[in-house]
Design goal:
The protein is of the alpha/beta class. Helix content is 39%, strand content 17%. Helix 2 (54-64) crosses helix 3. Residues 11-144 form the B12-binding domain.
């Protein structure tokens, strides 16, 4: 019989503050659901949500004595993941340590070269790959050469196998196994627009667009059917009494007809739900927004990125300033709150373009705004270009493996040093939020004092500069 597989989400530690919330690890609950479907025993350890220290983790690993441990890590969590792997190897060096997530996908060879504690990298989507790995590793003499979508170390040689095709039918994937996590411990980044119990959901995978700074799957977007999405919402409402949902899709509004059907089903089922989502400015219409509002949408977060058309073109956003203004105006008219994210410091940025972005943000006057310093994540077009031009080193990612990176300038832009760039996000926040009219707007917004305080705590966390 297959032994229990342990899936671990490392602790963020001091990389985040409580005000920034804790989202459920969908990456692991999806994997667990797939393994369970194929009768593989599995458990999940979320070191942050469950407040598990490294000493306690060692005790759990000793008691469970697993053969296989899977760890998820994006780049900022690479060192934390390595700590977990080293503890497991010290207990039993025969445990196979599998790493998945953005770190493994974008830097499989570099990660294996840097960390001897990892045995196998899962590249890309993990459901099918992990299941095949578990079955193969249970054999006395596993043959890893036949498993697509992995990199591994064998006799001090690193092998990267052929890529695995993306899962086409998302409806074939079981719902996340939330029964394996302590669901009540997860909380949203701000209580201003969420009520507990709170859940995160994803109704699609991939993105059809090609922004230069984005590390996620580009060019292909696969969608769950409206019926499948509603099936999961029913489970969340009935089993977990969920009151609010964050749809974590890159662009929930990508397929307007599908979203209208989802909204119709939410209304038909009379779910008492409030929800938020992400969207592109050129993927909404008045009729769609009205339907979303009727179905409980409270807030839409738009990737505005810049107030300079020249910078938007450099980023390959595929949108115009006019489209941005139109989308924000339409959304406000519908009564849905708006949030806009901006990214500063991409090569080509100047003091003038940053001033244009801050002025544009004030003009749009979205309910909330977030200003982030660009981080050239491995796997992005931006990262590869900077690497090719020798503006960053091959070890650049190791800097990001120590911090979240959202306020860490990495590229000298010529007329601005990285030290000068570091000041711009905080300036942008101050100029946007500390306007008398903005302060008054939030004060009379209808939000309770408790909810405004909750949001300001999250806002304060976003201002942390390192």
């Amino acid at each position: 019989m297959t032994k229990e597989v342990i899936l671990i989400y490392p602790s963020y530690g001091d990389l985040v503050t409580p005000a920034e919330g804790i989202l459920e690890p969908l990456c692991l609950t999806y994997l667990a659901g797939y393994l369970k479907k194929h009768e593989v025993p599995v458990s999940i350890l979320d070191l942050t949500a469950d407040n598990i220290s490294l000493d306690k983790l060692a005790q759990i690993i000793k008691e469970k004595n697993p053969r296989i441990i899977g760890i998820h890590a994006n780049v900022p969590l690479a060192l934390k993941a390595a700590q977990v792997a080293k503890i497991a190897k010290e207990i039993n060096e025969e445990i196979k340590i599998i790493l998945g997530g953005h770190q493994a996908t974008s830097l499989p060879k570099e990660t294996l070269e840097t960390f001897s504690c990892f045995d196998i990298m899962v590249i890309g989507e993990g459901e099918e790959t992990l299941l095949e790995l578990v079955k193969e590793l249970e054999k006395g003499t596993p043959d890893l050469k036949k498993i697509k979508g992995i990199a591994y170390r064998e006799s001090d040689k690193i092998t990267i196998n052929p890529k695995r095709d993306l899962i086409k039918e998302l409806d074939s994937i079981p719902f996340p196994s939330r029964e394996l996590i302590n669901f009540s411990r997860y909380r949203p980044p701000t209580k201003a627009y969420y009520s507990k119990p709170f859940a995160a959901m994803i109704t699609s995978r991939g993105c059809p667009f090609y922004c230069t700074f984005c590390a996620y799957a580009k060019g292909v977007c696969r969608l769950r059917s409206p019926e499948n999405v509603i099936g999961e919402i029913k489970e969340l409402v009935r089993k977990y009494k969920v009151k609010s949902i964050l749809f974590y899709d890159d662009t929930l509004t990508f397929d307007k007809e599908r979203l209208i059907k989802i909204c119709d089903l939410i209304i038909k089922n009379n779910f008492d739900l409030k929800w938020t989502c992400y969207s592109r400015v050129n993927a909404v219409s008045p009729s769609l927004l009205e339907k979303m509002k009727s179905a409980g949408c409270e807030l839409i977060s738009y990737g505005v990125e810049s107030g300079s058309q020249r910078m938007l073109n450099i980023m390959k956003k595929g949108i115009t300033l006019e489209q941005i203004e139109k989308a924000i105006t339409m959304t406000k008219k519908t009564g849905i709150k708006t949030s806009a994210s901006y990214v500063l410091g991409i090569p080509g940025e100047t003091k003038e373009s940053i001033s244009q972005t801050i002025a544009f943000a004030k003009k749009l006057n979205t309910t909330f705004a977030h200003f982030n310093m660009i981080t050239p994540w491995p796997g992005t077009e931006l990262y590869n270009r900077l690497l090719k031009e020798n503006q960053i080193s091959e070890n650049e990612w190791k800097k990001y493996a120590q911090k979240l990176g959202m306020h860490i300038p990495t590229v000298d832009l010529g007329e601005m040093t990285t030290d000068e760039l570091k000041k711009f996000p905080i300036q942008a926040y101050r100029k946007f939020y500390l306007r008398p009219e903005k302060i008054w707007e939030l004060a009379v917004s209808g939000l309770s004092f408790y909810k405004i305080k909750s949001y300001l705590l999250a806002f304060k966390a976003l201002l942390r500069l390192r």
